[in-house]
Amino acid sequence: MLAAGFSRRFGSDKLLHPLADRVPIGLAAARHLRSALPETLVIINADEKELAALLTQDGFPVTVCPQAHNGMGASLAWGVEQTARASAWIIAQADMPFIRPATICEVAEAVEHPTALAAPEFQGKRGHPVGFGRAYGEELRRLTGDEGARAILRRHEKHLRRLVCDDPGIIADIDMPADLEPRR
């Protein structure tokens, strides 16, 4: 799970901001991910000491990406490098705490083949998490910058399996405090 951003648009550390149930955003997202995938690694930046403590207390393995300031691609590459023996990677974002565990399981099941790619889709919009089969490990490890893995998905679009679902959480990322307000 990618939690190495710097919350610049939010105005404060959004991953520590409590949801309605008082659980911080980052911890809620991690718990949903772990309920579907027990082997969950959280990638943070060096400034996230409070989040690291919360996650560690809750039993999550945490790794600090030394190049987090270079963007999401660098953090993703770091996480893949730390889990190089994995048979596939499910890339989730810590600012998306509303994704249902069942959706995460569907993505994981869809990338059992090494060349498989999978992403959930809600009302015609591709969302998160995104699954990458083992064949994409080297490309993931070479990522840099802030684009993440979009270029890999574009290059291998014919292998991307879109999983239509009824989970609005797959497109509900939290970038600003207004994103937490109920939709009307």
Q: Top keywords for this entry?
A:
5-stranded mixed sheet; 3-stranded parallel sheet; alpha/beta; Spore Coat Polysaccharide Biosynthesis Protein SpsA, Chain A; 8 strands; 184 residues
Describe this structure in words.
With 184 residues, the protein is of the alpha/beta class. The chain has a single domain (2-171), classed as Spore Coat Polysaccharide Biosynthesis Protein SpsA, Chain A (Alpha-Beta Complex). It has 6 helices and 8 strands, in the order E-H-E-H-E-H-E-H-E-E-E-H-H-E. It has helices at residues 25-36, 49-57, 72-82, 101-110, 137-141, 150-155, and strands at 2-3, 42-44, 62-64, 88-91, 117-122, 125-126, 130-133, 160-164. Strands 4, 5, 6, 7 and 8 form a 5-stranded mixed β-sheet that branches. A 3-stranded parallel β-sheet has the order 1-2-3, sandwiched between helices. Strand 5 (117-122) and strand 6 (125-126) form a beta hairpin. The two termini are 30 Å apart. The mean pLDDT is 93.
Which oligomeric state applies?
single chain
Q: Give average pLDDT, whole number.
A: 93
Largest sheet composition: 5 strands, mixed
CATH class reads: Alpha Beta
The total tally of domains equals 1
User: What is the CATH architecture descriptor?
Assistant: Alpha-Beta Complex
* Helix segment tally: 6
C-alpha geometry:
globular
In angstroms, what is the radius of gyration? 15 Å
The CATH topology assignment is: Spore Coat Polysaccharide Biosynthesis Protein SpsA, Chain A
Task: Tell me the layout of helices and strands.
Blueprint: E1 2-3, H1 25-36, E2 42-44, H2 49-57, E3 62-64, H3 72-82, E4 88-91, H4 101-110, E5 117-122, E6 125-126, E7 130-133, H5 137-141, H6 150-155, E8 160-164
Parallel strand pairs: 1-2, 2-3, 5-8
Antiparallel strand pairs: 4-7, 5-6, 5-7
